[in-house]
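WARN no homologs supplied; continuing
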Amino acid sequence: MDGANQSGVSEFVFLGLSNSWEIQLLLCLFSSVFYGASLVGNLLIVLTVASDPRLQSPMYFLLANLSIIDLIFCSSTAPKMIYDLFRKHKTISFGGCVAQIFFIHAVGGTEVVLLLAMAFDRYVAICKPLHYLTVMSPQKCISFLVASWVIGLIHSVIQVAFVVDLPFCGPNELDSFFCDLPRFIKLACTETYTLGFMVTANSGFISVASFLILIISYIFILLTVQKKSSGGVSKALSTLSAHVTVVVLFFGPLIFFYTWPFPTSHLDKFLAIFDAVITPFLNPAIYTFRNKEMKVAMRRLCTQFLNYSKIS
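OK structure emitted
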């Protein structure tokens, strides 16, 4: 964080969405509800998978870790964003801004790899069911998890290393709700076109490439199933629909942020809110509503908790 000492800027100001108190209050209620629902939903998935022996399978192991990642991601941006909606002067320190960028990219990079691992898990489960438990062994699942965190952290360190020592001597207003890398770079008191292009191309390439790999893998799974049994396609579609929905919701805003050549402030802010509080809520909702086994397990957990509360 030495860049803060070499810079004339010690803090940044978020411009938010509007100066209207009514709009800010509505946005605060909206964000608080979805953030609270994200916390409850993802925690419930983690507790359900951890406590129910019927869910001790690779698919649910990866799903529980996706919920942990969503918890970290939304908690790195939403609380500060909600708190700032009550403040007229919305600020964040230089170090806090860099830390927020680091966590966003670390968790985002980790989620990208984990979604790829979940796609591989579905491929093995649908196309090679007899070998599923052998291929998706506990050791393989742990390896996927460790690799996802290592890759996510490396990606984030590289991104932050590019910008942490940039000089900031004048403008300090970020037209957003939280620190995002493209706007952060634009405030530096130096020529940043090349650096901005490198950072944007890095994240943009990763987002687009990962999204295409996932979509192609799902198409390959459906084609493989169709060759084996035409009746199995509908079952495979039902299984994959939740995964495809989550992938589109996760990568859609990312691809727009890093590849759309014509920035639009209001749309960027809407997608920022969507990415910060709605996507982490939708992930558990989608997987829960599409999975009967998970819904039954959650009811068992809630029943056990209520019975325990009555006894206590």
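The radius of gyration is 21 Å.
OK
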